[in-house]
Description:
Layout: E1 10-14, H1 22-32, E2 36-41, H2 43-48, H3 51-58, E3 61-64, H4 70-84, E4 88-93, H5 99-102, H6 112-135, E5 139-149, H7 163-185, E6 188-194, H8 200-203, H9 208-218, H10 226-237, E7 248-251, H11 262-273
Parallel strand pairs: 1-2, 1-4, 2-3, 4-5, 5-6, 6-7
Helix pairs in contact: 1-3, 1-10, 4-6, 6-7
Amino acid sequence: MSYNLLKGKKGIIFGALNEKSIAWKTAIRAHEEGAEFVLTNTAMALRMGDTHQLAEATNSIVVAADATSVKDLENLFNVTMEHFGGKIDFILHSIGMSPNVRKKIPYDDLNYEFYLKTLDISAISFHKVIQMAKKLDALNEWGSIVALSYIAAQRTLFEYNDMADAKAALESIARSFGYIYGREKKIRINTISQSPTVTTAGSGVKGFDGLMDFTERMSPLGNATAEECADYCITLFSDLTKKVTMQNLFNDGGFSSMGMSYRAMHMYNKSLECKDCHTNPFEEDDSLPAK
Length: 291
Ligand SMILES: NC(=O)c1ccc[n+]([C@@H]2O[C@H](COP(=O)([O-])OP(=O)(O)OC[C@H]3O[C@@H](n4cnc5c(N)ncnc54)[C@H](O)[C@@H]3O)[C@@H](O)[C@H]2O)c1
């Protein structure tokens, strides 16, 4: 259902690799809501992924840019402003990658070159994007910038590895730049802390299926889907959230406020009961009454 929330608005969407990507779902929703945008990703991702299909479906242009390259970002903003004949209104930073996670290197044996790459791609790129937007004065007043984060920025989660440090930096950049860009140009900057979601980046985290099941059981509303994350992004790009800035906003079905739930405790107890038996408790029927 469309509400025309982004009618006349223009933007840049980073990170739509394939139809599972959160950025992809956001582009589809932004298009439905009347926005026009430029899609961008690395040259390699544009070769390997399906971004050009999305561009066709949303009547967008695609510009290659490595978000860690200031030169690429300068070109991206210049081409975008030329394309639209003026400034833009929103930016989605939906970028994350850790070579340490990819290579299954544990947190207490990190490769530091990879660590720096994780931070550059997943966090510092956010600063580079915002700094370039500000330098080129690319955003209209009351524009909105959103990046995607994860609760591992605040709490330790098994196997999230150096991405946790990157997300902590990402959220801090939203606050630090949110102050400056808000004060000078009335631009708002926020991060959305999203539930685990089945995407190319998400599924790369070890134990991802177990994590999704755990957070589903812990969250009173269940995990938020990529589509629901896209909906939240749309509200933040719209004029309905003009005074929301410098926030990390949880889109997680309530997970971040939970300690233990009935459904998770039930599963945990089951595994304790079965400590000495030889069956796998996770294979048993665990249908539960709603509680
Ligand atoms: N999937 C999850 O469980 C989950 C949960 C919370 C937050 N997030 C965050 O959501 C965002 C989007 O991830 P996703 O889950 O949609 O996965 P995805 O793999 O579809 O998207 C990640 C994107 O980052 C792009 N990217 C990587 N390096 C880049 C670079 N140097 N320059 C520009 N782009 C680059 C990739 O090409 C890809 O399009 C990420 O920030 C991720 O950490 C994901």
